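Weekly modeling sync, notes
Attendees: S.R. (lead), two postdocs, one rotation student

Agenda item 3: backlog of single-chain predictions. S.R. asked that every request posted to the team notebook include the full sequence so nobody has to chase files. The rotation student volunteered to paste the first one in as an example of the format we agreed on. Action items at the bottom.

Example entry:
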Amino acid sequence: MTDREDPGAVDGISRYPFELVDDVETRTGVTVHLRPIRPDDDSCLTEFHEHLSPQSVYRRFFFTHPRLSPAETEKFTHVDYVDRLALVAEYGDRLAAVGRYDRIPGTADAEVAFIVADDFQHQGIGTILLERLAGAAWKKGITAFVAETLSENREMLEVFRRSGFHVTSSTSYGTVSVRFPIQPDDAYRLAYAGRHKGGGAGKGDTGSP
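Predicted structure, as returned to the notebook:
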């Protein structure tokens, strides 16, 4: 059987994780469609990046980077959904945010990163993506997330600190390195329940690992 004949395939991708597809509501009541990225997202990812503000791009890449190269676009849209996963949040026919993890080879740690369109920031989308990525990664044998962010990026640091995970950090030359286990312990479940007590986690309520 080829990937095209695989009932679980999308555009030739075997084992596409449909269980991660969901509609979720932001803190401001906007509904976005959450799904794993696909190779055919190359053009919409390129457009998404080109409409980001210079500040948002700098906070994600740590340098001025107005356009993604074809090699970057291919890398970002082609993932194996096990050691590398990216989730996109869609609003209508555009991307509102992208979150991803990449396992560090030979370890049970993965680097996690997010970028949210400027007009969708401060709505809790980064937190939703972190919850879903952590849940998916834990099921694939990843036990901790690591990340680097600029000290000035207080919003991203708050997402980590308020997640309910036990976050440790160190600062060097304006950059903060964080690490936190993603095991769904009581502290995480309590924080998660507090965020979703109104039932806004999504139709499948799959955010909690």
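Discussion: group reviewed the output briefly. Residues 3-195 form a domain with the Aminopeptidase fold (CATH 3.40.630.30).
Action items: rotation student to repeat for the remaining queue; S.R. to check formatting next week.
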